[in-house]
Write a structure and sequence with these properties.
332 residues; alpha/beta; SIR2/SIRT2 'Small Domain'; 2 domains; three-stranded antiparallel β-sheet; 11 helices; elongated; binds zinc ion
Length: 332
């Protein structure tokens, strides 16, 4: 019998090492199989196995799920938002441009801005997160998504309308500017919306080095009922949200306990977004944030995350489908 310097039989130690190596190999094989079959987070994402597992379990057992969808959801689809601080279009600060006052002053400029945004949104395709959220909506009938996005990509991903509440309107809805007229057209996908707004191939209208056309008022979109100017049916800075949208959300919250609140692609620091998170938490929800920026940990803040909550850092187009794959299958 040969002993090593610690008095342990060398043959025995070798057997133990081989056994440990076998266990390690089996474990690695098992982990690789789990990744393949979607029961572990993708190794490319910064998601811990513990938070992944606990989230998947909670998502599966949740019935009443509220989601707040922001610009970050559409970032991977290439949609510029102009809503962030410092968001500019040409030389215009978007917070000054997307206002009723700016439209009244220069409807030609505003219609060129919105016709361009319609054009971009029409060319974009929904990403894997839009598709995964639409799958969630199809599976969980009591799910409600509050979307701040106006790009129509959730709708394009076949998100059922009964589970989707837009709060900032849509680029593809237009309404009359005459307050006595109730004309509203939904689902207008014409590009350009009127011939005068046709984008030329030669240059990018967003590039301030090129001059914009000054389009006469009569060539801009007009109401078929009263001939007043039409405007995009989106919520501009300084305008209140649609009453019907707020009522629907409040009604949904009033029904009872909320199991899960998902905050997707938004820092949700402003009213009323922050209020929905607060209300969901009071109704018992655990919060899951999918965003590139981590929310503050301050408990007084609406979204101060707590121990039972989750933060999935990164592009929602990657983290949402990855955390949903075990329940809803992989999204190509
Ligand atoms: Zn009208």
């Amino acid at each position: 019998m040969t002993l090593d310097s610690h008095g342990v039989e060398i043959a025995k130690r070798k057997r133990a090492t081989r056994a440990a190596e076998e266990v390690r190999k089996q474990y690695a094989k098992q982990q690789r199989r789990k990744i393949r079959t979607g029961t572990l987070p993708s190794p490319n994402l910064n998601i811990s196995i513990d938070s992944y597992t606990s989230f998947v379990k909670h998502l599966e057992s949740s019935t009443r799920i509220l989601a707040l969808l922001g610009a970050g959801l559409s970032a991977a689809s290439g949609i510029p938002t102009f809503r962030d601080a410092g968001g500019f279009w040409r030389e215009h600060d978007a917070t000054q441009l997307a206002t009723p006052e700016a439209f009244a002053k220069d409807p030609s400029l505003l219609w060129q801005f919105y016709n361009y945004r319609r054009h971009c949104a029409l060319k974009a395709v929904p990403n894997r997160a839009h598709v995964a959220l639409a799958k969630l909506a199809a599976k969980k009938s009591e799910y409600l998504a509050i979307s701040q996005n106006i790009d129509g990509l959730s709708e394009q991903a076949k998100h059922p309308p009964r589970n989707l509440q837009l709060v900032h309107g849509s680029l593809f809805n237009v309404k009359c500017t005459n307050s006595d007229c109730i004309f509203l057209e939904t689902g207008n996908f014409a590009d350009p919306i009127v011939p005068a707004l046709e984008l030329t191939e030669q240059y990018n209208i967003s590039d301030a080095r090129f001059p914009l056309k000054d389009i006469p008022k009569e060539d801009l979109p007009h109401c078929p009922k009263c001939r007043s100017l039409l405007r995009p049916a989106v919520v501009w800075f300084g305008e209140p949200l649609e009453r019907s949208a707020i009522d629907r959300i409040h009604h949904w919250l009033d029904v009872g306990k909320v199991d899960l609140m998902m905050v997707v692609g938004t820092s949700a620091t402003v009213w009323p977004a922050a209020n929905y998170i607060h209300a969901a938490r009071i109704a018992g929800a655990r919060i899951a944030v999918f965003n590139t920026e981590k929310p503050g940990m301050d408990d007084d803040a609406a979204m101060g995350l707590r121990e039972q909550d989750w933060f999935f850092e990164g592009d929602a187009a990657a983290t949402i489908p990855d955390t949903f794959k075990e329940i809803f299958g992989s999204v190509a």
